[in-house]
Amino acid sequence: MIKADLAIIGAGPAGMSAAVAARKKGIESILLLDRNPFLGGILEQCIHNGFGLHKFKEELTGPEYAYKYSKQVEELGIEYKLGTMVLDVTPDKTVTAVNERDGVFSVQAKAVILAMGCRERSRGALNISGTRPAGIFTAGTAQKYVNIDGYLPGKKVVILGSGDIGLIMARRMTLEGSKVEAVCELMPYSGGLTRNIVQCLDDFGIPLLLSHTVTKIHGDKRVTGVTICEVDDNRRPIPGKERYIECDTLLLSVGLIPENELSKKASVTLDPITSGAVVNGNRETTVPGIFACGNVLHVHDLVDFVSDEAEIAGNAAADYIMGKNVQSSKRIKLSAGFGVRYTVPQIVDAAEDTKVFFRVTDVFRKAKILVKDGDRTVLSLKREHCAPGEMESVLLKKTDIESIAGDNIDILLEVEE
Questions:
Q1: Distance (Å, rounded) from C-alpha 199 to C-alpha 392?
Q2: What confidence tens digit (pLDDT) does each residue in 368-389 have?
Q3: CATH number assigned to the domain comprising residue 290
Q4: Which of 210, 221, 256, 284 has the most crowded CB, counting CB atoms within 10 A?
Q5: 237 and 137 inside one domain
Q6: What are φ and ψ of residue 399, in 5° steps?
Q7: Whether residue 190 is found in the same domain as residue 127
Q8: Do residues 301 and 405 share a domain?
């Protein structure tokens, strides 16, 4: 049995940021565990730039961003075990893992931070008719083939879904010599950042077909084409609006799912909307001493924000270990109102100011964000533009939280006429 003050599961940007924050706060015994053979997680295959603009005030590639944190992990002497699969986490903060060197082993920690990241939704989660030919990949898998392994998945490509990975791979495949025929998006708006739509599609003349989906995959041994179709307001294919696109590759960018199998084993309560843990402002879950951050909590737009959130979790875990975490008796449950899909955190207290992150359900212009306690407006903010693909936030001050009369508060989004 290994003893550690803090065990962190996942050594990607969230796990490393949390570890660095906890070490700087005074925690000496930290153990990072990751199934990959290297520090950095998914960033190692994200060779495009655009990382670090908020955190480091410079434009970095994914590996460069990861290096900045892995260097700190090394310099601070934070222990880590790579090539290590975590099998179980219990509510008493016992972590069971396995690797080639140590075999099966257990870690008894005083606090645990969950930073396992997320995975892509695969074809199995979609109801697309057709056979099962070669040439169908998730966008992240194609990214690994191109950027890490040096393989080109195909020459004529259709991409289903306009998430950021799909948009980035549209550009990447084009730069490698492939022809991206179209990016199809089921919703009437893109799921990615505006900058990626401009830089990855518009700059390369790649069409974005909103309110379109793939209804059939053609081909026997290899994809030979797909049938796409326009959809109605209920996202159902419109008869007569089908058309065939010849291609040899279909990339899927149809959503990310937090890797919360271990969270369930630890008896952590999950949010049905985010599929991540229910947390308070310190990113502490419903199990005392177990924290969550990064894409395992909710899917982020920018890795810079993952690092910011992980620092919150790392600092809070350090306070928990040292017995310094102070919580107010005033605890408020947040709920999403009209126009808002979810909030993180879901619980706030009056111990400190809390930034609340949320996503909207549709594209709104000239929007007003209201934080309401019943009929009383606690906070009102204006936004020129809100879209589901871009995270929004509001700052709830201690005085705002203390002024709330009940146990629940809604974050609403209204559109000004």
A1: 22
A2: 999 988 888 888 999 998 999 8
A3: 3.50.50.60
A4: 284
A5: yes
A6: -65, -35
A7: yes
A8: no
Token look-up 């549709």 returns: 362
Q: Which two tokens stand for residue 50?
A: 């655009």
Structure tokens at 5: 């003050």
Which domain-ending residue is among 279, 299, 325?
Answer: 325
User: Where do we find the tokens 């929007």?
Assistant: 367
pLDDT digits (tens, 9 = 90+) for 164-185: 999 999 999 999 999 999 999 9
Residues 230 and 117: beta-carbon distance below 8 Å: no
154, 131 contact by CB (below 8 A): no
- The DSSP code for 130 is E
Cis geometry, peptide bond prior to residue 63 (ω within 30 degrees of 0): no
Query: To 10 degrees, the CA torsion angle through 48, 54, 55, 56?
Result: 70
Query: Could you tell me if 245 and 271 lie in one domain?
Result: no
337/111 Cα distance (integer angstroms):
33
Backbone angles phi, psi at 294, to 5 degrees: 80, -155
262 and 379 share one domain: no
Same domain, 8 and 56: yes
Q: Both 131 and 243 in a single domain?
A: yes
pLDDT tens string 312-348 = 999 999 999 999 876 666 788 999 999 999 999 999 9
pLDDT at 415 over 70: no
* C-beta atoms surrounding 247 within 10 Å: 26
CATH of the domain at 394: 2.60.40
Instruction: Identify the domain containing residue 135 by its residue range.
Output: 122-252
Structure tokens at 259: 């890797």
Say how far apart CA 41 and CA 55 lie, in whole Å. Answer: 18
What does the mean pLDDT of the chain come to? 93
Write out pLDDT tens, residues 11-55: 999 999 999 999 999 999 999 999 999 999 999 999 999 999 999
- Give yes or no: residues 27 and 74 share one domain: yes
Burial of 239 (0-12, 13-18, 19+ CB in 10 A): exposed
If one counts the domains in the chain, the total is 3
Quickly tell me which residue has 């609006």 as its tokens.
241
- Tell the residue number behind the tokens 């924290």, with chain if given: 291
Domain boundary among 207, 230, 252: 252
